[in-house]
Design brief:
It is a single chain. α7 links the parallel β4 and β5. With about 425 residues, the chain is of the alpha/beta class. α4 crosses α12, α5 packs parallel to α6 and α10 runs parallel beside α11. The N terminus is likely disordered. A six-stranded parallel beta sheet has the order 2-1-3-4-5-11, with helices on both faces. The chain has a five-stranded parallel beta sheet with strand order 9-8-6-7-18, with helices on both faces. It has 13 helices and 18 strands.
């Protein structure tokens, strides 16, 4: 048996009153005290480790500031798409500049994450990094975001375009979107006045409610100034595929369309219009420089309107709404500059008139509207009917666009 001086001194201090005990009893006492001593050291080491490494404990969360908050963003594409994700990231950078957040150290982006597994992995990496707030920007991101919100109640989850937050009713899960129908409608006015064949074409990503709502608002705007207009729509089945987008744009031109619209995530439609000597309305980005003879205008989101409010509310200890929508009046949707070299005479005046009506509260989905009622996924009735009576308004129940009917004059090619 070997006892070093330090251990013997420790035993001595605690056993001074046992001067008459035997050496054997002293040895047993030393063993007991050594066990307590090393247990205390291990406990203290554990406490120190947890304090040093615990990035999201309650004490730290109470001290979140604009200088240390961590934000993660999960995107379906990347900034080089020159479309939706480009615009999302532009909003992120504007928010960071407005709130004094360092985008290099306090923001982490996950690009081109589409499948549920990819989104789940991104969420796990964001949490391990120490994210306080996680934002996902595509409709398909919803289910894994909701599951993660249930399992991580101390982290805030914000999902753009989604529709799960209201039913989930979790304090840390939020949906948000902009009323893009208003800007779509006004851009449709530019298309309706510009067309010479009275045929529009629309390159659409998916046959879901967000896309159908947007293309319908675009058509209604065109129809408001040109009752004879009709529009062919072809779906891509993906958000971003410039090659396929170009092929569909060309096919629509071959159908007689001389103005193209789009809900797709690249400038390919604009470039094809430029090559073919026709006109186009973009989405999420102004590409007049790339297509100077084709581009008329582009409806765009201003995502920092939401991001500024959401992050500020979190850092300053206020809650965020479960479901958030803002539109033209709040600046969350806008139009790019008009291309004065391509728009038809009277376009600016007609759009200004529509803008004044929208600012005063006009709903672009106001009857009479006729068409074919949606009866299931990618299925519509065969018989046209009155979808909205004169003066009747269709009100979105949540922030996620949900119009799914096919308006008369719109022809789906697939």
């Amino acid at each position: 048996m070997t006892i070093d001086a330090g251990e013997m001194a420790l035993v001595y201090l605690h056993c001074e009153c046992y001067k008459n005990v035997t050496l054997d009893k002293l040895h047993k006492r030393w063993l007991e005290m050594r066990k307590v001593f090393y247990s205390a050291i291990l406990l203290l080491a554990g406490v120190f480790f947890m304090s040093a490494c615990g990035g999201n404990n309650d004490d730290e969360r109470q001290e979140v500031t604009f200088e240390n908050v961590r934000l993660a963003f999960i995107h379906p594409g990347n900034i080089y798409d020159r479309g939706y994700t480009y615009r999302q990231h532009d909003g992120t950078l504007a928010m960071a500049a407005a709130l004094g957040i360092d985008p290099e150290t306090q923001i982490r982006n996950f690009w081109t994450r589409l499948s549920p597994d990819e989104v789940t992995t991104s969420i796990e990496e964001a949490i391990a990094w120490g994210a306080d707030m996680i934002f996902a920007t595509s409709f398909g991101h919803g289910p894994p975001m909701l599951e993660a919100a249930r399992n991580n109640p101390d982290i805030m989850f914000h999902h753009a375009t989604g529709n799960l937050a209201v039913d989930a009713n979790l304090p840390n899960f939020h949906n948000y979107f902009g009323n893009m129908s208003q800007a779509r409608y006004m851009s449709g006015i530019a298309a309706g006045l510009r067309t010479e064949t009275n045929v529009l074409g629309f390159v659409a990503a998916h046959p879901n409610s967000e896309v159908i709502t947007g293309l319908t608002a675009f058509f209604l705007g065109a129809q408001s100034v040109n009752p004879d207009v009709r529009m062919y729509v072809q779906f891509m089945g993906v958000w971003n595929n410039p090659t396929l987008e170009s092929q569909i744009a060309q096919a629509l031109i071959d159908q007689g369309a001389d103005v193209l619209g789009q809900h797709a995530d690249s400038p390919a439609t604009q470039l094809v219009a430029q090559e073919n000597g026709v006109w186009s309305v973009g989405y999420n980005n102004c590409v007049i420089a790339e297509a100077p003879d084709a581009t008329l205008v582009a409806p765009m989101f201003v995502w920092e309107i939401y991001l500024n409010e959401a992050v500020r509310n979190f850092v300053e200890g206020r809650g965020n709404p479960t479901d958030f929508i803002r539109g033209w009046n709040e600046g969350m949707v806008v139009l790019s500059d008009f291309n004065t070299n391509t728009i038809a005479p009277g376009t600016v005046e007609a759009v200004v008139t529509a803008e004044a009506q929208i600012r005063a509260g006009r709903n672009v989905f106001t009857g009479p509207i006729y068409g074919y009622r949606n009866i299931g996924p990618q299925a519509w009735s065969d018989t046209p009917e009155q979808l909205l009576a004169p003066g009747e308004e269709w009100i979105e129940p949540m922030s996620a666009p949900s119009w799914a009917h096919r308006v008369s004059g719109i022809i789906f090619l697939n």
